[in-house]
Write a structure and sequence with these properties.
- This protein is of the alpha/beta class and 286 residues long.
- Helix content is 42%, strand content 15%.
- Helix 2 links the parallel strand 2 and strand 3.
- It has a six-stranded parallel β-sheet. It has a three-stranded parallel β-sheet with strand order 3-2-4, with helices on both faces. The protein has a two-stranded antiparallel ribbon with strand order 9-10.
- The longest helix has 23 residues.
- Helix 2 packs across helix 10 and helix 6 packs across helix 10.
- It folds into two domains: 86 residues, Rossmann fold (3-Layer(aba) Sandwich), CATH 3.40.50.10860; 124 residues, Rossmann fold.
């Protein structure tokens, strides 16, 4: 069987071009989109992520406002910053870069963000809206995976989908989105018995485990679609996913590489959420 590589970079770029066109149309009508990104402390990885988001916003024509706060900020001062951004009519989206320094309650900060500005899709109201099919923001990585499937011509309806991982950021929202796609969904995790038996029956396998090359060809079904959300380092220090991609070539029908598969979609869907914030907020004010 020929395995097709799903090129996340190319699909992400296609979507970014579409977003840029729509942002330009809104600008012509006098509507600017602003994303406020709050970075607490000096974590190097977080700085890289924030820079990537800033560059993506610049490409799309979205204003990126950085709020840099010291690592020793108090919880109340951080919450006060979020409240000010909630009340600022010029700000469409608010993103607090995680993880936060020790001593700060990330859950409380997420809950403090106004749901209509929650472009990360982490607020309990956003999650609840997703679960019952109401409009709202969807966590960026799962939303990006849906786009990868759609734009690769992969029909999920009636298929058996196994998601390995039950995090609030990927696993759980991914399960709800695949139900929306009319797939039959199993969410597996570290306590699942006979995990490899479960993965080997999946028509669509989505992994979000964080263990380098955990899954091999023997763990997947012939012709399976394999979506790898893992971002790990192998024994030689090279970036790799949860799936041994090379081993699955010739058995999977489609597979996402790491890097260059799911990763580029995450920031792209953040841009999409920023774009969608305009219509969601207009509904709020009607």
């Amino acid at each position: 069987m020929e395995t097709r590589i799903i090129d996340g970079k190319a699909i992400a770029q296609q979507i970014r071009e579409e977003i840029r066109e729509q942002v330009a149309i809104l600008k012509e009508k006098g509507t600017e989109i602003t994303l406020a990104v709050v970075l607490v402390g000096e974590d190097p990885a977080s700085k890289v992520y924030v820079r990537n988001k800033k560059n993506a916003c610049e490409f799309a024509g979205i204003i990126s406002r950085e709020i840099l706060l010291p690592a020793d900020i108090t919880q109340e001062a951080l919450l006060d910053t979020v409240r000010q951004l909630n009340e600022d009519p010029a700000v469409n989206g608010i993103l607090v870069q995680l993880p936060l320094p020790k001593g700060l309650d990330a859950d409380a900060v997420i809950r403090a963000i106004a749901p209509e500005k929650d472009v990360d899709g982490f607020h309990p109201q956003s999650v609840g809206a997703l679960s019952i099919g109401l409009p709202g923001f969807v966590s960026c990585t799962p939303a990006g995976i849906i786009e990868l499937l759609h734009r690769s011509g992969i029909d999920s309806e009636g298929k058996e989908c196994v998601i390995v991982g039950r995090s609030n950021i990927v696993g759980k929202p991914m399960g709800m989105l695949m139900l929306r796609e009319n797939a039959t969904v199993t969410i597996a995790h570290s306590r699942t018995k006979n995990l490899r038996e479960v993965t080997s029956r999946a028509d669509i396998l989505i992994t979000a485990v964080g263990k380098a090359k955990l899954f091999h060809a023997d763990d997947i079904k012939e012709g399976a679609v394999v979506i790898d959300c893992g971002m790990n380092r192998d024994e030689e220090g090279r970036l790799c996913g949860d799936v041994d991609t090379a081993d699955c070539m010739g058995k999977a029908s489609f597979i996402t590489p790491v890097p260059g598969g799911v990763g580029p979609m995450t920031v792209t869907m953040l841009l999409k959420n920023c774009l969608d914030s305009v219509s969601l907020q207009s509904e709020e004010t009607v």
